[in-house]
User: What shape does this take?
Amino acid sequence: MAIGSFDPQVFERISAALRAYSPRSEIILEEVPAPQKLAAHAFALSADVSNGLLGDDEDELASGRFVLLHEPGGQDTWEGEFRAVTFVRADVDPVMQEDPLLPEFGWNWFLEALNTADCNYTAASGTVTRVASTAFGKLSQRSDEAEMEIRASWTPVFSGEKSIEIELTNHLKGWCDLLAQLAVLEALPEGVAAITAARRR
Assistant: This one.
């Protein structure tokens, strides 16, 4: 998209497209207030990933936040006019948490999720953090816990072959696919569509 060609109403259409996206049923998306000082336009969603069960059997496996920023004319570090900024956390096996290559695996999973969702992008950057906790005292009966956190940002690049709304929705899809992978959800059978509108908050 050429600098200076952006119509503000386009961002409203982009926001509507992202708002309407339905991931697989275990992922619940919720629109949340977007940061107001990072760019002229912003849209944000939070995600909670469960095991798909109901009632007392439901268990949260991962969570995250997806923020899309737009600054007409771009910002120096973006290399474009749009920037996706995300955070993802997921429980991991304590043994897996000890693997020194886990951060590298996590970053590769992130890039692979975008590539698989047919996303074009540049200037990807971020961090992968391992978090381990051991309980003591009255909490000592709890098992050791381990988490992985991925904080990442990247600049979408538009091919022009599809509408900007569709291309940016692909970036949201890739992010949701990353959440599903980190939560170790079973792959959906080919041709099966996700139905989640009833569970959207």
Q: What stands out?
A: The first strand starts at residue 27 and ends at 32.
